[in-house]
Amino acid sequence: MKFSIKRASLKSLREKRSACLKELEVMKFSIPDISLEELNKNEKELRKKAESLWEGYKFYTDKVEGLKKQASSFFNRIFDREKVERLNKDINSFSILADDYFKKYTDMQDRVLRTQDLYIKRRPYEEKLSFLHDLEKEIVIRENAENKRLRERNKMAENTRQVREIAEDVKAKLLKNKYCPYCGRLINYNGYAHADHIYPIDKGGQSTIENMVYVCSDCNLKKGNMTLGNFIRKYNLDRNYIETQLINLNKDF
């Protein structure tokens, strides 16, 4: 199954990076020390030279064939013997040139094939390098995001701690209302009264007299970190009653 960088966990990405680095360390001892870009450039230049040499070879072989035809037409004519000898000398000269071009051409073709072989050997290494680069890039993105979330959590935790510390001071100043503004039951202040943040702390609510109110322990535990609206909907409470009670107590909601 193909490894998906985008879907993998940060832990998997780090493990894959470690494995990739080890593979590259082993591979580098058996590959040519030249990039694919350079090999590709070299191959193009060699092919161009090979084509030029082939054109030279074809030029001289065509020349030889033409001279052989001329020599054949003059061979049986006694008075053209000298001309035939001159043609044969030219044929020999051009044949030598054609052979030389062909030898250079075959040598050049061998160099092209060797370059292709180097390319094939180098390619898996460069693909692995590219994969490693993508891994590193994704890891940096994930680590930055993780660090950002951690900073935000720490900041929120610090804010929550401070808000809760302030809440203890505010709680001492709250008016002790006789009835729970949420359910209407009588509040027992002998260990059963809770001071609720009407707008929850973890959603940005502050410890102020306007945002805190005494409620019965049952309502406070049920409400938890829900907003007032969600709490009313979940437990099918009387919104008009609750809002009236909070307004009378000078609370914000």
Automatic annotation (TrEMBL):
InterPro entries associated with the record: HNH, HNH_nuc, NA-targeting_endonuclease
Coiled-coil ranges per UniProt: none
KW Transmembrane (keyword) present: no
Keyword field contains ATP-binding: no
GO molecular function: endonuclease activity; nucleic acid binding; zinc ion binding
Superkingdom, natural source: Bacteria
Limits of the HNH nuclease domain: 169-221
UniProt source species: Succiniclasticum ruminis DSM 9236
UniProt-recorded name of the protein: HNH endonuclease
Database matches in Gene3D superfamilies: 1.10.30.50
Keywords, comma-separated and alphabetical: Endonuclease, Hydrolase, Nuclease
